[in-house]
Amino acid sequence: MASLRSLLPYLRRHPAALAGLVLLTLQVAAIVFAPVLSTHSPVEADPLSSLQPPSLEHWFGTDVSGMDIYSRIIHATRINLLISISAVALALALGVPMGLLIGYYRGIVSSLMMRLFDFIQSFPVFVLGMALVSVMGQEIWNVAIVLAVLFTPMFARLIRAEVLSLRERPFISAARCSGATDFSIMFQHILPNALTPAIVQVSISIGMAILLTAGLSFIGAGVRMPTPEWGLMVSSGAQQMILGVWWVSLFPGLAIVLSVLCFALLGDAVKDLSDPTTRTRQ
Amino acid sequence: MTAPDSHAPDSSVLLDVEKLRVAFGDRTVLSDVSFTLRRDEVLGIVGETGAGKSVLARALIDLLPEGGRITGGDVRLSGRSVPSMTPREKRELRGGRIALIGTNAKALLDPVEKVGAQVARVLRAHKGGSRRGAWKAAVDLFARVGIVDPERRAHAYPHELSGGMAQRVVIAMAMIAEPQIVLADDATLGLDATIQVQVLDLLVKRCRDLGLGAVIITHDLGVVANYCDRIAIMRDGRIVELKPAGRFLEKPEAQYSAVLLDAARVRPTPMGAFGTAASAPPKPLLEVEKLEKSFPVGNGKLVRAVDGISFSVAAGETLALVGESGSGKTTAGQCLVRLLDSDGGRILFDGTDTTTLSERGFRPLRRRIQMVFQEPYVALNPRWPVEDLIAEPLGLSPGMDRAARARRVRELLDMVRLPASLAAAYPHQLTAGEQKRIGIARALATGPDFVVFDEPTTALDIRVRAQIIDLVRDLQRDMGLSALFITHDLNSVRSLAHYVAVMRNGKIVEHGETETIFARPAEDYTKALLAAELPIEQSEAQRTRALSRHAMAQA
Amino acid sequence: QNAKSTLVVAGPRTPESLDQEYPPTEAVHELRRNVYERLLAYAPKKGEDGVTYEDFGKIVGALAESWEVGPDMKSITFHLRKGVKSAAGNELNADAVMWSFERGWNLKANFHWYMTQILKITSFESAFSKVDDYTVKVSIPNSSPLIERLWINSDLGMLDAVEIRKHVTADDPWAQRWLATNSASFGPYRVTKYSPGQEIVYEANPDYYRGAPKLKRVIFREMPTSANRVAALQAGSVDVAEYLLPRELVLLEKMPNVKVNKVFGNYIHRVEMNNDTPPFNDVRVRQALNYLVPRDDILKAVYFNTARPTRSPISEIYPGFTDQYFTYTTDVEKAKSLLAEAGFPDGFKTELGYRTGDQLEEEMAVILKSAFARAGVDITLSKLPASTLVERYSKGTIPMYFFRDMAIVPDAAYVANLWLNSASLINYSHFKSDEVDKLIDQALISTDEPKRLEGMKRVQQITVENAPWVFLVNPGYQVATRSNLGGYSWYTPNGNAWFDWTKN
Amino acid sequence: MFGVMLVTFLLVRMLPGDPALLMLGNTATPDSIAALRERLGLDRSIWEQFIAYMGNVLHGDLGVSLFTSNPVTVDLMERAPATLELITYAMILTVIVGVTLAVLSVVHRGGIVDRFSQVYGLAAGAIPDFWVGLLLIFFLFYLAGAVPAPFGRIDAMVSAPPGVTGFYTIDSLIAGDWTAFQSSAGRLLLPVLTLTIVNAGALMKMTKTSFNDIWRSDFIRHQRASGLSQRAIVRSALRNSLPPVITLVGFLFGFLLGAAVLVETIFAWGGLGQYAVQAVINSDYPALQGFVLVAAGFILIVYLVVDILYELADPRIKV
Ligand SMILES: Nc1ncnc2c1ncn2[C@@H]1O[C@H](COP(=O)(O)OP(=O)(O)OP(=O)(O)O)[C@@H](O)[C@H]1O
Ligand SMILES: Nc1ncnc2c1ncn2[C@@H]1O[C@H](COP(=O)(O)OP(=O)(O)OP(=O)(O)O)[C@@H](O)[C@H]1O
Ligand SMILES: [Mg+2]
Ligand SMILES: [Mg+2]
């Protein structure tokens, strides 16, 4: 990983990475200072001022229940990122050891696990997520767990593929020759090398998780009203869109786009930074 | 320049390079390169990695890698300046008048297209004509570049060809549009010596037959000595010396040239001069009996990589295992250190049959048997710093504290002649030679009795190779190591091994003392192997030819 | 020509089944109104707004040309209209009616429920008899004030026995499989195409006893999203859009070529509380919540004045309705003190369920959440698939839930029995008052009309005071059409009767 | 496939909500509930239910939808063409857009297309499809009025062409019904555009990566050094990036099936996706089971086809 000192010039050369970092900072700020940044309560309905277009009072307008969209977007950052990041963290925590084990020890159990992963992944992600959330109930944590279940195979496969290719690499033979045990080969030699693609994937997955959470909420299989959540907010304006009320869906949708974009940009940067060949060529 | 014919604008000059400068960004990689190439002349360009040879070749057809620009000078083909040609003319030039042959022929061929079609495609790009006619021309040419059964081979895909065969296809591709000049950039790198000779013979012969100009770019002074009329030595983007081959070999002028030539000529100090006397056969440290190892390859077939070989190595002795690529050398070596489980036979190390031991049971022996791996970079974990890499095998000798380890690491760095400052570096920050040394330091860390050296010198630059050979020889002497020395490079065998075993198709075809084998090879295969080694001397034929040409030029 | 006689309707849902015995849903009610014909009907009456309503005071014959009610209201004899033909061309006679009764009785669903629960019939044989080919008699054990009115109910249509019997099989003696996707009755229309979830096509019955319908063909398309129905109506690709949101109706009213028919009907939309479980077993808590509801805001911002506040458990248009006992205003202080008395000075946490896809309930839920929060009552909103919601409230495992319903028999006692009788299966709020139960039971068998009405007044008083529900609104019924449509009529099941409609 | 069946069965069976209760609604009596449960087989043990289910599936009987009262097989068959038509067109357009952009941006590196593709590649992966759908509705339907009302496959006033392929566009052409063709093609526009905008970016990025590797590979450089024309070189590079693109397209097909769930909901498409959403909302077990089975089966078939095509496209795979 890059030290801080090499990070600055890198950022100067890569405005995209800089943009990602700025977006991330904005989101962190939104998470930390939500109460200060917002102008209204994110869950207080004010029926008499429903569906107001953007104005000085309501920067992004109000939704059908008269809640302030701007304030809701700010507060939603917490929920959305909480769900996505914890889902990915969980998936990583489960998927990495699984991938390592089934990649390193090949046997019936491993191939059974692979079948299972194939199976989970052969469904359209979204449909499976939808079904799972409705089985488990619409709680924030359930959404996170479901996403983790969906992402675990991805990480496990990724790590497994890396392990499979790494274990054939001569430096593993060399290590064995130097007396490394299975344990140290797995954790000291293979894991650190296999982790880089997983870390890049983390960033992408967080983006995917944000999109999926939003999608689930959009069809009503995600978090519950009136929790400020971007997908739910888009959905609450979906009906109105065709009648020309654009602000209810537009702004939270933009928030989703920017947030996912942020993680995509960071992912690219991480990939760049962790690849020694691209770094030295700079 | 020393060549007498460098200025004259005479009609036999095909290519005239004048003060050519190429830069990548603000880094100049070629400066003031000038030379000419005449009809029916073979020019050799030699230089170490990064000297700018490939950049030069590509600059000649104005097809530099992205980011590279010609910043000065000119390349003239029959008087026409190449850089100022229109794109269309350049396209016709490339492959049509100057053909380029690169390294690793398999990678140069379109993997999803039949090779015959690929060659035909080039012909049609330059000469037009019908698909069928071009195909026929390609097949004819295949026959002439020594491809047996050309009609069938033309229908093959690149992955179905061997390396040598693929190289012939690429040569055919270069020749098909009847260019005036052929550029061969490390065209035979990575091929077996025997194949290399065949390919080069073929290439040079065709150039001579057709009276083409050829530029052979290589690391190997043996190649230029045997095939080229003139030699250019490159270093850091400059030509430091350019003269007829014979004169160069006799008396290089530039100091760098002399160093290069010396390193390439490291002549073996026969082992007898310093090694243990081969008089009283000592008790063998390692005995291998009828070792067998096969690999399954797809549809149930087996490749017998090692097919019943037997040999023994006594304490303090070195056995060299030589043979062409794929003959099973690495496999044999890996069986010894138990990276592969053998399928049959016995391996007795110091009296213990290691083939019957479990992995756990073998672990104590690892301290005594070590291996140096073939490719230096990939055998090092890219995420570990040098000190950890070297310290890893020390885990085999229990009871070492931190300080002791650190001390040992420094000792080892010193032993392989690396500065202690490298301890914190990562493998990708090292040169190939340094990486190789780290590999050796790792193998020596536990003070083993027996080391398998897998190709310690291949893929290294001339000077670095000489240094590694010196290092290994010193270590053998100082530590009294026994070693199995696996290699392609017959030169180094003579410097390092007491005995030689020649492998072919998994079997040992000849086995004996080094000097004996080199002097009087018994088997045809061994003879062929030895013949393929290109001495750094001008052959008789070359010399006469050079003389006659010189006379011609004088006339 | 074709365009004039064809009607394209966009609705949220196609009927789930065409069988008469399928549970009544909104879509099913509309189907029955157009396909199945009953024995009796209310006389039509023109309202001031030009809409044709039912005159609850005047019953007329439908398939029965005339009828007599026996002494003590313990029996009723129907004289069938002669020459009435089903959509398949079969003639109506006593056999068809008897077979319809028999099928309903044996399938133990809708028909059976009315007969046993309302008319208290215990045995088929002693209750139903064929007098002659065109006369049928129904006798009941106790007298019932509903013995006439019940037969107007749209769940009690008469089937074309001849047609249906053709599809009877050994394992399906009542042709349930066939009738689930086919229609056979004496109504103005029959179903010629039925693709559940997509569309249903009605074709006029030229032999309908009131004359051939003016609209020969009605195509009903399912469009679950109301905004899409609005856009379709606007674009002229449908003639009628049902069940739109009030907000959308406001928008449509401003458009040329579109008109909105609005009536104040019998729907009641409320939040029910589980009166059995704490904290809702304390009447003060229930009252407090009623004091917290911002009814005016809801009427304005959610319903855009297409609804009226609920001021009684009885539908406002039914005889016997009174709102004189209703005292709840929006009064946070009062609510707080009631909660404090009940031992919740800081409020409490609870859960409120509403149906997936119900935009209005969601909007109201959000408003209620904010409103209740003013007294510290923190509600979690659970959007639940309809089936889950039904399951949870019928098992009593959800403390609060939205409930929208209508009682299609315009009789206060019938309505009260449905929702307030502690013995009623759909009294999901578990409201129990011995006095109410007694008054209802009396009213169900009493034939003394003034006394019944008196009792029902008392029932409304007790109920409003006990506040088993959070009273919200009576939403009315609206349907938006292209402006070239006329003849709109309203019946208690709310479904549209295409027979009455005209297209210019 | 057995596994698929078991898991879908269990999964779907765990959905909350008692369908019997829901179906009967407010007037349910314990008697009628019991009768209905018995009819639906809900009263038996879960294993008995599964075994019965298995047997039925093998006979092509996926049960009867609790909501439409139709056999699930019939429902699915009725809706499948809608979804297939949608995703097939989306697929074709996505591939055309994605691959063209990828090739252009690699060949003319640093050009306008390249710069556009970089921005688009980043953005496309970040845009939720449902949002794009809504924006398209707002801009193209509400503001510009350029497209017909965005719901359903065909105008409610126009009757669907007689079914041959199930694709309205093709069927209406076969029937020579120009109005129906216009109407159905117009309706396809927005959903197909939505799916394309969202997915072409990802396809483009991945195609670009593999095409770029090939474009910079030794053999392409060698072809240039051999004086082949740009056209021939692009063709050869494209031919080489075919195998990875085929794999991607396979994935994409599966992915589109999932994406269709949201897009169909927005555009009231009446296909499998919308059916699935309704099945979840209504606890319609047999319908959801049927959908999941069909989706898994469909994807298996797609992967199979991908494998075959892959082999055809890459001589190195052949045994
Ligand atoms: N694409 C490129 N971008 C930047 N620098 C380059 C590029 N290609 C070559 N160089 C630089 O040009 C110099 C000469 O490289 P070149 O490939 O010609 O060496 P070479 O003599 O062919 O070496 P080798 O024997 O290893 O093939 C090197 O310093 C290299 O770093
Ligand atoms: N893991 C393996 N699986 C299948 N075949 C193998 C494997 N390793 C080696 N082989 C085959 O065994 C034969 C001997 O290989 P080996 O690597 O020992 O040759 P070598 O003499 O070391 O060649 P080189 O000089 O190229 O290193 C070759 O034909 C090779 O293809
Ligand atoms: Mg080179
Ligand atoms: Mg080897």
From TrEMBL, chain A:
Coiled coil: none
Residue ranges of the TM segments: 81-104, 116-134, 140-159, 198-223, 244-266
Principal location: membrane
Record-linked InterPro entries: BP-dependent_transpt_permease, MetI-like, MetI-like_sf, OppC_N
Domain ABC transmembrane type-1: 77-267
Keyword Transmembrane helix among record annotations: yes
Domain of life: Bacteria
Subcellular location: Cell membrane
Annotated keywords: Cell membrane, Membrane, Peptide transport, Plasmid, Protein transport, Transmembrane, Transmembrane helix, Transport
Name of the protein in question: ABC transporter permease
TrEMBL record, chain B:
InterPro entries: AAA+_ATPase, ABC_Ni/Peptide_Import, ABC_transporter-like_ATP-bd, ABC_transporter-like_CS, P-loop_NTPase
CDD domains associated with the record: ABC_NikE_OppD_transporters (cd03257)
Keywords: ATP-binding, Cell membrane, Membrane, Nucleotide-binding, Plasmid, Transport
Membrane topology type: Peripheral membrane protein
UniProt keyword Zinc-finger present: no
Compartments reported by the entry: Cell inner membrane
MF annotations from Gene Ontology: ATP binding
SUPFAM superfamilies: P-loop containing nucleoside triphosphate hydrolases
Keyword Transport (UniProt): yes
Record-given protein name: ABC transporter ATP-binding protein
Source organism (scientific name): Skermanella cutis
Biological classification of the source: Bacteria, Pseudomonadati, Pseudomonadota, Alphaproteobacteria, Rhodospirillales
From TrEMBL, chain D:
Localization terms from the record: Cell membrane
PROSITE patterns from the UniProt entry: ABC_TM1
Membrane-traversing stretches: 86-107, 119-143, 188-206, 245-270, 290-310
Key words, A-Z: Cell membrane, Membrane, Plasmid, Transmembrane, Transmembrane helix, Transport
Keyword Cell membrane part of the UniProt annotation: yes
Predominant cellular place of this UniProt entry's protein: membrane
Nucleotidyltransferase listed as a keyword: no
Domain ABC transmembrane type-1: 80-310
Topological category with respect to the lipid bilayer: Multi-pass membrane protein
Record-stated family: Belongs to the binding-protein-dependent transport system permease family.
Protein name: ABC transporter permease
Organism the protein comes from: Skermanella cutis
